[in-house]
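Hi support team,

I've been running sequence recovery on a batch of backbones for a student project. Most finish fine, but this one hangs at about 90% for roughly twenty minutes before it completes. I'm not sure whether the input is malformed or the queue is just slow. I've pasted the structure tokens below so you can try to reproduce it. Let me know if you need the job ID as well.

Thanks,
M.K.
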């Protein structure tokens, strides 16, 4: 198990008179998404209060913003212990020119707005930013870690501009952590949820040649990374949020088929993926990304599901529990 649940770097506060911990308030954008909802549940279990930042808040302590229009309720930052910025236009869609602008602007403009408001504070809370391993491009092999330079492609450019938008805050002495996330595994959403229906029917298979590497992380481990980033005041800069071992797409799909006890005999050729999804296919589905979590290893992070077999078992078990 991951020992970060009760981490020595910042002990949890004592129980209050109501038998709950009062660990502070965390401002979260994208709180209703796959990662955001899981993170918020875990934070609340640890005694944190959640303040949602959204165009249409659904949580009781919600604040409104509309980065595209430059509008934000600045009271959102009052008294918060940390800011976790997860919001952004979905990547998994065919990239028209208009969608490329939305993907870029939803991340860069919103981050710039948050940073500008944080810089106006005398003692700004830390900013934990959801970036991506796409920062390194879509053809990454041979010891690609946090020290590696950025790569080529649309998503790499978005990630560079996205992270660069935090520079005024770090230059002013604020703490910023960029969580460069790999493929997030969960049966409740993301790539795995899209793969499950065809694979359960025995209609799954490798993508392209299947030789491209996939760097992934189980949702529960990603939440643990965010917790560490929030609570460890010594952490700043980029962190690759991926499992210890990247796998080829061929190995990944074979493991998923075994976990479901189904064959995986129907590959999706690269030409078909490009026909269906355009440029998005090359930078996501067919991307060759062997990313090392060097900083997580150095800080002694322990993955709950370090192997793909363990991650798939956990995801599928939760899926079965939710259906029962």
């Amino acid at each position: 198990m991951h020992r970060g649940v009760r981490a020595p770097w910042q002990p949890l506060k004592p129980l209050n008179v109501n038998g709950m911990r009062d660990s502070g308030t965390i401002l979260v954008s994208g709180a209703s998404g796959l990662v955001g909802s899981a993170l918020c549940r875990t934070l609340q279990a640890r005694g944190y209060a959640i303040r949602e930042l959204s165009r249409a808040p659904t949580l009781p302590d919600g604040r409104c913003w509309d980065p595209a229009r430059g509008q934000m309720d600045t009271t959102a930052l009052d008294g918060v212990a940390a800011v976790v910025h997860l919001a952004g236009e979905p990547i998994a869609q065919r990239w028209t020119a208009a969608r490329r602008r939305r993907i870029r602007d939803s991340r860069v403009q919103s981050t710039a707005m948050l940073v500008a408001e944080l810089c106006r504070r005398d003692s700004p809370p830390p900013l934990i930013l959801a970036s991506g391993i796409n920062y390194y491009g879509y053809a990454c092999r041979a010891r690609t870690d946090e020290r590696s330079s950025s790569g080529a492609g649309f998503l790499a450019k978005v990630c560079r501009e996205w992270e660069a938008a935090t520079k005024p805050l770090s230059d002013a002495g604020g703490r910023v952590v960029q969580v460069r996330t790999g493929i997030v595994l969960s049966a409740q959403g993301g790539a795995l949820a899209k793969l499950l229906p065809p694979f359960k029917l025995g209609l799954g298979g490798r993508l392209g040649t299947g030789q491209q590497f996939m760097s992934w992380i189980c949702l529960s481990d990603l939440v643990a990374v965010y917790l560490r980033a929030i609570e460890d005041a010594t952490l700043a800069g980029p962190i690759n949020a991926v499992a210890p071992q990247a796998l080829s797409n061929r190995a990944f799909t074979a493991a998923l088929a075994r976990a479901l006890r189904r064959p995986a005999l129907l590959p999706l050729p690269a030409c078909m993926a490009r026909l269906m999804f355009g440029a998005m296919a090359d930078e996501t589905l067919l991307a060759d990304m062997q990313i090392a979590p060097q900083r997580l290893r150095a800080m002694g992070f322990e993955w709950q599901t370090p192997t793909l077999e363990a991650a798939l078992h956990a995801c599928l078990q939760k899926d079965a529990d939710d259906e029962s």
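--
Follow-up from support: It reproduced on our side and the slowdown came from queue contention, not your input. Residues 1-21 have pLDDT under 50 and may be disordered. No action needed from you.
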